[in-house]
Design a protein that fits this description.
Elements (H helix, E strand, L loop, with lengths): L2 H17 L2 H5 L16 H31 L4 H12 L9 H31 L4 H13 L1 H21 L7
Helix pairs in contact: 1-3, 1-7, 3-5, 3-7, 6-7
């Protein structure tokens, strides 16, 4: 049993859970209302979730790179962009930011929104291609965070997947 690979699979799944699905989040009916915790998923749904989540994570990582590049293309660092975004949320607002920085921020924000829209559709299609609907995917993601039962079931599926990968990998001759 390779503990590193198992840990890596868990980290990938956790990263996907923590990042959330951009497209799926856009469809949330009421962000203030916590969804109902469902724990009785079919094994096939959980397997589809695991497959979809690794593909979703890859899409999201690519989107994050594209968003960071969009910020840089407008002449800002990611840190400066985040500082301006936080300033917009605060009471003091953008008093300390130059109009040039604000203009670069606005252009970068527009590009980021376009990237998010595009990736949202891709994520939804990726989830569906793995044989699971977006709502079930979101329910499993939520249950993974809140339910030890579902987390245990998913960890078991990850372990099975890792064993399958090891069995399929060509064996190195021993010397």
């Amino acid at each position: 049993m390779n503990k590193f690979k198992m840990q890596k699979l868990k980290v990938v799944l956790l990263a996907v859970v923590m990042l959330g699905s951009l497209g799926a989040m856009a469809q949330a009916p009421n962000p203030m209302q916590e969804p109902e915790l469902k724990e009785d998923f079919k094994k096939d749904e959980l397997k589809s979730f695991v497959k979809a989540s690794s593909k979703v994570e890859a899409l999201q990582m690519g989107a994050q790179e594209n968003m960071a590049q969009a910020v840089k293309d407008e002449g800002l660092t990611v840190e400066k962009f985040n500082t301006i975004a936080q300033a917009q949320q605060s009471e003091e607002g953008l008093e300390n930011e130059s109009s040039e920085d604000q203009e670069m921020f606005n252009k970068a924000s527009e590009k980021i929104m376009k990237i998010q829209e595009e990736i949202g559709g891709e994520i939804q299609e990726t989830i569906k291609k793995e044989g699971i609907d977006v709502q079930t995917y979101e329910q499993i993601m939520y249950a993974y965070q809140k339910s030890d039962k579902v987390k245990g079931e998913l960890d078991e599926i990850l372990l099975e997947a890792q064993k399958e990968q090891q069995n399929q990998a060509p064996q190195q001759p021993q010397q």
